Amino acid sequence: MGKNTDKNEFAEKMIAALLSGSHQDKAKTTTEIASANKKVTSADTKGHRERLRQRYFDTKGVGFPDYEYLELLLFRSIPRADTKPLAKALLNRFGNLADVLGADINLLQEVQGCGPTVARDLKILAGISERVNRAELHKRDVFSSWDKVLAYCKAALAHETREQFRVLFLDKKNGLIADEIQQVGTVDHTPVYPREVVKRALQLSASALILVHNHPSGDPTPSREDISMTHVVKDVANALGITVHDHIIIARNGYTSFRAQKLL
Questions:
Q1: Any idea which fold 142-257 has?
Q2: Rounded CA gap, 67 and 94, in Å?
Q3: What pLDDT was estimated at residue 147?
Q4: What kind of architecture, by CATH, is found in domain 65-139?
């Protein structure tokens, strides 16, 4: 009712100004209309936010497209403006919600409307999501939730701009003991020291390992060096009773499992 009443008042003032012939009144009325239109837009935005939040709680997000989830996330970073255009622009740039959260903070800021505050808030949320996913892996046999392992690794590594070599250390029941970054390299190379990997496994009393690294190029195809290094780690680990379950290469365009490709 409030919105319709306001619009009727704007129309009446415009008509009155035009009929009066007063330039001063016309200027005043134009200013009032601009101000009131701004209020209506603000009210519309607020109403949309309230409706979207309520729909989320009513449905628990079932059926929500990625852009509506992203809209909700942007509400706190952008307290008044419509967040839908930015949500859609981010998805157009990065593809999906997971890839938006995983994107480099500098790349996020290349999207029009995504300033430092928004980019930082998205990266904080990505860090929280990674922490939650890691906690889930601590609770169970990783092989009973392999999709979660892959999702966790992709969230952590898919958009890194330098190669990073990580190791998931597992206990006798294949529960996660620790996920540690062993080395960070350049855009196309990371030095790996097999004895250091196995030494750390012994310190943690790990029974098994999953090796993980990323290819910033976007292509998850293993190189000869990747294959050779994997077999060296496997041989050193096996000699001490530690199993290497898999080596996963993560990239923006997919992943490669050495186990699935019979490379291990």
A1: Cytidine Deaminase; domain 2 (3.40.140)
A2: 12
A3: 83
A4: Orthogonal Bundle (1.10)
